[in-house]
Write a structure and sequence with these properties.
This protein is mostly helical and about 220 residues long. It has 10 helices and no strands.
Length: about 220
Amino acid sequence: SGSSAAALLPEEDCMKLNPSFLGIALSSLLAIELWASKRLGVCAGEGSAWGSARPLMKVIEVSGHGIPWLLGTFYGLCQSDSSAAREVLLNLLFALLLDLVLVAVVKGVVKRRRPTHNKMDMFITVSVDRYSFPSGHATRAALVCRFILHHLVLAVPLRVLVVLWALIVGISRIMLGRHNVTDVLFGLLLGYALYSVVEYCWLSPLSAPALFALW
């Protein structure tokens, strides 16, 4: 009978026949996330619900891309004649490079594919960009946001705008269909935490004299 056959099975095989509640719960949550991500991808294509807003979303995409931030920071570093400004810009450059490396490593390890409704028309991509976890735009936005708030003296309205920009960059990744919800949420948390690493490893003329000798 079935019960006698199950009794003869090794313990580990019996466990496989009875999937854990945790496994079922995680599978259900993943299915819900994929469904929600697809529903929220309202700018994933020109024919999507908010397809007319896609060009604006792509401008926001470029604003959170690594290349403009790296080039702009490097240019500012070369043009600055203030030692204090150079120190801040050099650390921002360090933060951006650290972010790129960390996100690339995590993407390469996790290997989560991008949502099926995503159009691969992103601004300047490399091989690892075919993976979606975590969102590099979200990590960068959170990292840069926290960096700016700590190292630039800004009026309250401008500080609010910086925070809104970071959040909008994250939300736009889901609306464009580039990422699932958890890709963006984890990316924002990772970028926020990464700033603490940058602060801990802060580069100064005393800790890294060779770097500052270049400028």
